[in-house]
Amino acid sequence: MSGTTIVWLRDDLRLADNPALTAAAERGEPVVLVYLLDEVSPGIRPLGAASRWWLHHSLAALSASVGGRLVLRRGAAEQVIPALVAETDAAAVHWNRRYSASRDIDARLKVSLRESGIDAQSHQANLLHEPWTVTTGDGNPYRVFTPFWRASLELPVRSPLPVSEVTYADATSDSLDDWNLLPTRPDWAGGLREAWTPGEAGAHARLDAFVTEGLPLYHRRDEPAVAATSRLSPHLRFGEVSPFQLWEAAHGRDKNSAKFLSEVGWREFSWNILFHSPRLATENFRPAFDGFPWGQADPAELAAWREGRTGIPLVDAGMRELWHTGYMHNRVRMVVASFLVKNLLVDWRVGEQWFWDTLVDADEANNPASWQWVAGSGADAAPYFRVFNPELQAAKFDPDAEYIRHWVPEYGTPAYPDPIVDLGETRRQALEAYEAVKASAGGSGRESAGD
What we know:
The chain is built from 18 helices and five strands. By secondary structure, it is α/β, with parallel strands linked by helices. Strands 3-2-1-4-5 form a five-stranded parallel β-sheet, sandwiched between helices.
């Protein structure tokens, strides 16, 4: 064998359990480790601002862990990767598979590289089971989570791979600072810096803390004031830790393990949906919702929602947590999404785009799938008539208002505003709109008390 090996990183910013890197090391030749920031190719969704902040720090951490040998390039993959092959006299290119519309780029590159005599190989790394391996008896994708996860649990899960011994080759690299991924005017990332440690080491520190301290409390995961959730989602989103490593760390460890791993299963389910419906962020999964009469978003109401000034305490707390930390507790995410879609009658895509820009863990599958779940337009979605009542949710899951008071210190004082809408009246209007869509589609449904 001769010629260097290129390992092309995307959402897999780790050295351990990285099949592409392992396969490259087995060739026995120097490895060019490259991260390509592609924001221009068809099928690519450019990162939101919070994700760009995370990416900067994750790349910096990865570069430090390989002695500064991480190569950074920017541009269209189908131009940059072949150019790098020629520049480094590479004989092979390895990458870990992705499952959004961008996979078409990979497919074309694999063909063109092989036609040029380059050994181009892709690997499974970031899902426990690839979308085409979990199907119904007739070979179709699952549309409901429970049977999907039941079928997934019948399949074997491989063990994580160790860090490989690699000799890294040099190549010309962009400067990370020149990519301008960090906010400057203004620098709004102070809360993100307080809350997170991006990178593989930070991911494993958080995983270790969760399995020893958080997992025993996981049955209280719906209480936003309790440190019972893993907060691993941004580390998973950027591939600083793999689902195989999570599985090994948590499986069978605690009475709460199965429930935690089923949440990993929801991530798998979302990617399964996206693989088969690549326009999930822009199109209703259920076409019947194409005729839903979304209202024109009132600019003042939308600004109040984004800034946590709605006068609805749990909604405001969640939106302020999001703005400060780039994260929001999952139960509260459902509440704030339901309020936007069903109390303000704003199209779910408006909320999905805001979360895409402000969440450090926003990925192409979970973000739109979760918004469509709340809206009622998605796969295995909450029925549209399920309206999360933020007052009842707060009474049930934050009864002492500990979470609310942390993020909304003026709560309970004259400085706190009145609600911008009447929850009961806007819920009634949402249900009337749903009934109209149901009637036009010839469907059936029932009404349920708000929860």
